[in-house]
Structure formats: C-alpha cells, structure tokens
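Protein entry
_____________
===
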Amino acid sequence: MTLPAGRDRYLDVLRAVAIVRVVVFHMFSIAWLSYAFPAMGVMFALGGSLMAASLQRSAVRAVTSRVRRLLPALWVLAAFVVPAMLWHGWTADDPNGRDLHMLVLWLVPLADPPGSAWAESATVVLWYLVTYLWLVLLSPLAWRLFRRLPLVSVAVPLVVLAITQLVPGHAGLDLLGWRASAVVVDLATFGACWMAGFAHRTGALQRMHLAPLVLLAGGCIAAGAGWALTHPAEEGSGNLNDIPLAQGLYSLGFAVLLLRAAPAMRWLRQRRFLDGAVSVLNARAVTIYLWHNIAIALCFPVGDLLHVWQLGAWTQLGYFGVALVLLCVPVLALGPVEDLAARRRPALLPTQRSAPRHRVPAHSAVAGR
C-alpha cells in the first residue's frame, strides 16, 4: 500500500518544529536539544518521503524540481556573502581558499562552498544543502534499491557510516580531501533517514507490526545515545551533531517513530495563527535555514546598541528576540525567491492553508499487506 498523494499537514508540522529547533539550538547551544528532537535527521526523513512521492510519478521531474527549488535561495545568499567576504579581505591565501573552481560550489554545492573565517556563521550551515542535493541526485538509484531490497537500502548508509567512524584512518577518506570526505560522512549519517522516508511513503512503516517496529527504533535510539555517552567528541561534547555514528543511529530511530505515528491534524485548521505559522515556516524553510545563523551573529552587536544587556535575567531571550526580528528581514525581502523557484505566485507571507490529505486508518494499512 502506498500512501495517497497530497499535502500532509503532519509532515508540515514536523518540518516547522525542526526548523524552530534548529534556530533555537544555534542560538542557545543546548546539547540536550539534539536528543529531544534530532531536527536534521527528521528533516532528511521528511525529504525522503516527499521525494519518494515524486519518484513514483517521474524520476527526472522529481530531481529537476527539487534542484530548481534548492539552488536559487543559495544563489541569493551567495550574492550577498561572497562580495562581503571579498570586501572584508578574503584572499586566496585563506586556508579555505577562494580559487575560481572552488567558487563554483556556490553555484552548484556538490561540496561545502568556500568561505572565510569571518563569514563562518553564513557558511557553516551549508553542509545541509550539500547533503540534500546529493541525496536528491542519488534518489533514482536509491529508489530502485529500496524497491528490491528495502531493508538493505536502509542498512547500507549505516554500514558505510560505521566503517568511516570505526576503521583506523577513516577507511581511506583522508585521501579524498576534507570536502569530499565530509560529503561521504554526511550522506552516510543521514542516508538511512532518507530511506526511512521512502518506507513511510510506500506504506512499509505502516504495514509493520507496532511492537517490532518500536523495538527496532528504540534499539537504534539506545545505541545512538549509548555511543554518544561513551564516545564524546574530541572537545568532550556529548552533542549528537558532533558524533556522526550516534547521530545516524539516534536520528533513524527517532524519525521512524515520528513517521509511524502520523496523527490526524484536523485540530490545526481550527487554530488559524498556528496553522498560518506552519505554512510560513514550510514555504520559507530554505531562506530561514540559510539566514538564521547570520541573524544570530548580528543580534549581539545590534542588541548591544539597543542595551539589551540591561534586561538582566531576560538578556539572553532579549538577544534572541533581536535575532528573530533580524531574521524577518531576509524572510520578507528574499523569501519570495522560494515561491518563484517552486513556480508559485510570490507572496510576502504565504499563510494560505492547505487541506490536510485524508489519512489511511491504521487497520487499513495493516490490511494492505
């Protein structure tokens, strides 16, 4: 049984929560948030589910439409960030380089685009676009593998991830250079979540009996958490984002449980403000992701000018408020680029609500075996 096509507000809500969690995490650097809601793994699982829906119609169109939606927002960011780095004294001697062949990565991010240390707040988040682009490009092949060997397709990224993390010398990744090796590790870390999205879209998760599914997902979560506790990052951090193997296992288990839950979202339409906020966060997801770290970096000097430090116990929240106001600027001014890329009518705040797609009752999913 394949899930019916249409807008799924539950997936919209999950993406909205993931985006908010990313912004909050980068503002406050609270390590336990990576366990409470592994946002990146959830976002890749959602991406996999939506990609599978498109692959069922046309593989070529599925790839081209997602590339078309992804790149323009990056190009807009590059139009601001690259000249700013050059103006600030970014030279070819910088360890990250600015040779012409590297600058091409700002147009097609097959690896992390180069950037100066001064602009790290803008460039540090670009790994997500790189990983997402590669998963999109590899999806037609991954889809074929999933249709023939679903369990193997989920296991392959985890096996590759384990090899890169456990084999001495990183299994030869150092020979590829840091950019290519980073791509391989990120793909292996979140590839299983992407494949879990395939399983969700085809109804495979819904067809599994709940008890063994919870047992498997719980085992992944426990293994990921256990690995993080016993193998902290070099700086002693227990943050999942710094421990790829823990991140891959934990995110997979967490995402599988969320995708299997699939509650009805009729209540959301009765709360107009919240429903509109979910729509805006989804329609401006790429813009928010690309610009939120810049807003956070700027909130401190701007906040100082506004004497936010005088708020006492509320100072940190005050700076966060400034960051959110600053983030509204690119969202309002540059966000319509996402509408154009998606071939929608540009809107300042796209709050139009979509009717949730009809959900298949759990007993129907089981009966479809």
User: Anything to note?
Assistant: The radius of gyration is 21 Å. Residues 9-270+354-367 form one domain. The CA atoms of residues 220 and 251 lie 8 Å apart. The longest helix spans residues 59-87.
